[in-house]
Amino acid sequence: MLDIVDERVRLGHAQSAESEVLAHADIVAQLAASAAGDARSGLDQHLSSLAEDGFIERQSGAAGGQFRILFRRAIFSLTRQSVAAVIRQRLGDKAVRVFNALSEEPNLTQAELESHVLIGGRDCKELLYRLLVDGFVHCAELSRAADFMNPRPNTAYYLFHVNLEQTTRKLLLNMHAYQDRLLTRRLAEVATNRRLLDKRQRVKELLKNLDAQISAADSAGNSDASAELSEQRAQAAQLLTPPEREQLETLKQSRTALRAGELLLEENIFLYELFLEFASQHN
C-alpha cells in the first residue's frame, strides 16, 4: 500500500494525515508486480490486522472494498509503543502499565491510578516517582478549595498525565547523543586496529593477485608454475597469525553490533521526528 502512494507522497503529500483511497484491486496489482507468488495470499488477513491496529481504515465497496492509510494515527501509535519499549527496558512491565493507563486516561490522581493498574500504593508511588524523574510522566499540582468534605483550605493534590510530545523531544536529544557516541566508538576501534586492518587488506590483495596468476597458469597448461604459485598462496594465507585472525573476528563482531545499534537509533530518530512534525500540525 505504501508503494502505491509513495509517488504521491514524494510529490508533496508527505505531511498528509491520511492517504488517498486505495482500491483492493490496486493493492493486489501492486503486490503482483513487486512480489512472486499469489498476490492475494494472506492479503485480507494482513489488511484486517492493520485495520484493527488503527493503521488503515476500511470502507465498504465492491471487489474487496477500499482502504485509506491513516499516517498520523499510525505514527502516533508507533511512537507510543516505542516509548513504552524504552520504559519496559528501564523500569519494567509495571511502569509500562502506569504509562499506558495515563496515556489512555490522563489527569488521574495516584489513588485513581492505583485502581486502574491494580498496583499497590507504595509500588505505584515509587513507579510514578521514577517515571517523573525520567520524563515519561508529568504532573500538575492543584489546590483544593475548602468545603464540607475538605475543611482544610488550599490542600494540594496532584494529577498525573503523559505528554508524549515533551517526552519524545527529550528522548530524541538522548538518541542523538547516543548516536554520536556509537559512531565515535566505532571509528575509534577502527583507528586502534588500523595497522592490523591494513595488513589484512594487503594479504587480501596478495591472495587475489596469486589467484589470478594461478588461473592464468592453469589456462596455459603450465602445471609447474601453477603448483609453485599455489605453494606461495598457501604461505601467504598464513601471514595472518591465529591471534590476529581472532582479533579481526572480535573487531568485526563489535563493529557489526555498533552499526546495528546505529541503525536502530536512526529508525527511532526518524519515527520521533515524524511524530513531532505531525504533532506540530495538530497544535
Automatic annotation (TrEMBL):
<feature type="coiled-coil region">
    <location>
        <begin position="193"/>
        <end position="220"/>
    </location>
</feature>
<dbReference type="InterPro" id="IPR039748">
    <property type="entry name" value="RPC3"/>
</dbReference>
<feature type="domain" description="DNA-directed RNA polymerase III subunit RPC3 winged-helix">
    <location>
        <begin position="83"/>
        <end position="162"/>
    </location>
</feature>
<dbReference type="InterPro" id="IPR055207">
    <property type="entry name" value="POLR3C_WHD"/>
</dbReference>
<keyword id="KW-0804">Transcription</keyword>
<comment type="similarity">
    <text>Belongs to the eukaryotic RPC3/POLR3C RNA polymerase subunit family.</text>
</comment>
<dbReference type="GO" id="GO:0003697">
    <property type="term" value="F:single-stranded DNA binding"/>
</dbReference>
<keyword id="KW-0539">Nucleus</keyword>
<comment type="subunit">
    <text>Component of the RNA polymerase III (Pol III) complex consisting of 17 subunits.</text>
</comment>
<keyword id="KW-0240">DNA-directed RNA polymerase</keyword>
<comment type="function">
    <text>DNA-dependent RNA polymerase catalyzes the transcription of DNA into RNA using the four ribonucleoside triphosphates as substrates. Specific core component of RNA polymerase III which synthesizes small RNAs, such as 5S rRNA and tRNAs.</text>
</comment>
<protein>
    <recommendedName>
        <fullName>DNA-directed RNA polymerase III subunit RPC3</fullName>
    </recommendedName>
</protein>
<keyword id="KW-0175">Coiled coil</keyword>
<dbReference type="InterPro" id="IPR036388">
    <property type="entry name" value="WH-like_DNA-bd_sf"/>
</dbReference>
<dbReference type="GO" id="GO:0005666">
    <property type="term" value="C:RNA polymerase III complex"/>
</dbReference>
<dbReference type="Pfam" id="PF20912">
    <property type="entry name" value="RPC3_helical"/>
</dbReference>
<dbReference type="Pfam" id="PF22536">
    <property type="entry name" value="WHD_POLR3C"/>
</dbReference>
